[in-house]
Design brief:
By secondary structure, the chain is α+β, with helices and mostly antiparallel strands. It has one domain: Zincin-like. The strands form 2 sheets. The protein has a 3-stranded mixed beta sheet, covered by helices on one side. Strands 1-2 form a two-stranded antiparallel ribbon. Strand 4 and strand 5 form a beta hairpin. The longest helix is centred in the last third of the chain and has 27 residues. The protein is globular, with a radius of gyration of 17 Å.
Length: 147
Protein backbone atom coordinates (compact mmCIF):
# COMPACT_ATOMS: atom_id res chain seq x y z
CA UNK A 1 0.00 0.00 0.00
CA UNK A 2 1.44 3.41 -0.88
CA UNK A 3 2.14 5.93 1.86
CA UNK A 4 -0.50 8.29 0.46
CA UNK A 5 -3.27 5.77 0.86
CA UNK A 6 -2.12 4.10 4.07
CA UNK A 7 -4.84 4.38 6.70
CA UNK A 8 -3.68 5.83 9.98
CA UNK A 9 -6.64 4.49 11.95
CA UNK A 10 -10.07 3.19 11.20
CA UNK A 11 -13.03 2.06 13.24
CA UNK A 12 -15.69 0.08 11.48
CA UNK A 13 -16.35 1.72 8.13
CA UNK A 14 -15.01 5.11 9.23
CA UNK A 15 -11.53 6.07 8.02
CA UNK A 16 -9.89 8.86 9.99
CA UNK A 17 -6.72 10.01 8.21
CA UNK A 18 -4.08 8.86 5.78
CA UNK A 19 -0.41 9.50 6.43
CA UNK A 20 -0.47 12.08 3.63
CA UNK A 21 -3.44 13.89 5.21
CA UNK A 22 -1.59 13.87 8.52
CA UNK A 23 1.50 15.34 6.86
CA UNK A 24 -0.53 18.07 5.14
CA UNK A 25 -2.23 18.99 8.41
CA UNK A 26 1.09 19.15 10.27
CA UNK A 27 2.63 21.29 7.51
CA UNK A 28 -0.29 23.68 7.97
CA UNK A 29 0.01 23.78 11.78
CA UNK A 30 3.77 23.76 12.28
CA UNK A 31 4.59 27.34 11.20
CA UNK A 32 1.66 28.68 13.21
CA UNK A 33 2.69 26.96 16.44
CA UNK A 34 6.41 27.64 15.94
CA UNK A 35 5.53 31.33 15.79
CA UNK A 36 3.03 31.22 18.68
CA UNK A 37 5.50 29.45 20.96
CA UNK A 38 8.35 31.77 20.08
CA UNK A 39 10.77 29.37 18.45
CA UNK A 40 11.10 30.59 14.84
CA UNK A 41 14.90 30.52 15.19
CA UNK A 42 14.78 26.73 15.52
CA UNK A 43 15.02 24.42 12.53
CA UNK A 44 12.30 21.86 13.26
CA UNK A 45 11.55 18.87 11.06
CA UNK A 46 8.78 16.32 11.44
CA UNK A 47 9.01 12.64 10.54
CA UNK A 48 6.23 10.06 10.52
CA UNK A 49 6.68 6.57 11.90
CA UNK A 50 7.10 4.59 15.10
CA UNK A 51 8.77 6.20 18.11
CA UNK A 52 11.66 4.65 20.02
CA UNK A 53 9.14 3.54 22.66
CA UNK A 54 6.13 1.76 21.08
CA UNK A 55 3.81 3.24 23.73
CA UNK A 56 4.61 6.82 22.70
CA UNK A 57 2.53 8.69 20.13
CA UNK A 58 5.29 11.26 19.53
CA UNK A 59 8.82 12.16 20.55
CA UNK A 60 11.27 14.99 20.10
CA UNK A 61 15.05 14.99 19.80
CA UNK A 62 16.93 18.26 20.17
CA UNK A 63 20.38 19.66 19.46
CA UNK A 64 20.21 22.71 21.67
CA UNK A 65 23.53 24.24 20.64
CA UNK A 66 22.35 24.33 17.02
CA UNK A 67 18.63 25.11 17.55
CA UNK A 68 17.71 21.97 15.64
CA UNK A 69 14.92 19.56 16.57
CA UNK A 70 13.21 16.58 15.03
CA UNK A 71 9.70 15.60 16.02
CA UNK A 72 8.47 12.10 15.26
CA UNK A 73 4.73 11.50 15.10
CA UNK A 74 3.51 7.91 15.03
CA UNK A 75 0.51 7.78 12.70
CA UNK A 76 -0.77 4.61 14.37
CA UNK A 77 -1.35 6.53 17.61
CA UNK A 78 -3.38 9.43 16.20
CA UNK A 79 -7.10 9.11 15.45
CA UNK A 80 -7.97 12.74 14.81
CA UNK A 81 -6.64 16.14 13.86
CA UNK A 82 -7.08 17.22 17.48
CA UNK A 83 -4.77 14.43 18.66
CA UNK A 84 -2.21 15.37 16.01
CA UNK A 85 -2.27 19.01 17.06
CA UNK A 86 -2.06 18.10 20.75
CA UNK A 87 0.99 15.89 20.11
CA UNK A 88 2.67 18.47 17.90
CA UNK A 89 2.26 21.22 20.48
CA UNK A 90 3.40 18.92 23.28
CA UNK A 91 6.62 18.15 21.40
CA UNK A 92 7.16 21.83 20.51
CA UNK A 93 6.93 22.61 24.21
CA UNK A 94 9.79 20.14 24.71
CA UNK A 95 11.75 22.28 22.24
CA UNK A 96 11.02 25.33 24.41
CA UNK A 97 12.47 23.52 27.43
CA UNK A 98 15.53 22.28 25.56
CA UNK A 99 17.82 24.82 27.19
CA UNK A 100 17.49 22.77 30.39
CA UNK A 101 19.11 19.87 28.50
CA UNK A 102 22.37 21.84 28.54
CA UNK A 103 22.23 22.17 32.31
CA UNK A 104 21.43 18.49 32.75
CA UNK A 105 24.29 17.43 30.48
CA UNK A 106 26.81 19.35 32.59
CA UNK A 107 25.39 18.21 35.92
CA UNK A 108 25.27 14.54 34.93
CA UNK A 109 28.44 14.24 32.85
CA UNK A 110 30.38 12.45 35.62
CA UNK A 111 27.54 10.23 36.73
CA UNK A 112 28.12 6.48 36.36
CA UNK A 113 25.57 4.91 33.98
CA UNK A 114 23.39 2.16 35.43
CA UNK A 115 23.86 3.14 39.06
CA UNK A 116 20.98 3.75 41.43
CA UNK A 117 21.78 7.47 41.34
CA UNK A 118 21.69 7.40 37.53
CA UNK A 119 18.31 5.66 37.47
CA UNK A 120 16.86 7.98 40.10
CA UNK A 121 18.07 11.11 38.31
CA UNK A 122 16.74 9.86 34.96
CA UNK A 123 13.32 9.08 36.42
CA UNK A 124 13.15 12.43 38.19
CA UNK A 125 14.27 14.27 35.04
CA UNK A 126 11.62 12.59 32.88
CA UNK A 127 8.89 13.29 35.43
CA UNK A 128 9.94 16.92 35.88
CA UNK A 129 10.16 17.70 32.16
CA UNK A 130 6.83 16.00 31.38
CA UNK A 131 5.16 17.84 34.24
CA UNK A 132 6.57 21.16 33.00
CA UNK A 133 5.29 20.45 29.47
CA UNK A 134 1.84 19.58 30.83
CA UNK A 135 1.78 22.78 32.88
CA UNK A 136 2.82 24.86 29.87
CA UNK A 137 0.15 23.14 27.80
CA UNK A 138 -2.48 24.07 30.38
CA UNK A 139 -1.21 27.64 30.35
CA UNK A 140 -1.40 27.88 26.55
CA UNK A 141 -4.83 26.26 26.63
CA UNK A 142 -6.03 28.87 29.11
CA UNK A 143 -4.86 31.58 26.71
CA UNK A 144 -7.05 30.27 23.90
CA UNK A 145 -4.83 27.50 22.51
CA UNK A 146 -6.40 24.45 20.91
CA UNK A 147 -5.92 21.80 23.58
Amino acid sequence: MSEKSEVVHSSGDEVHLTVEQMREYVEELLPLWIQRLGCPHWSISVTYGPCSNPDWSAQCSRQVAYDVAEITLDPAHHDSKEEIERSLIHELLHVKLAVFDLYRNVVTQNRLPGTAADREESALWEFTIEQAVKDLRRMVSGMGGLF
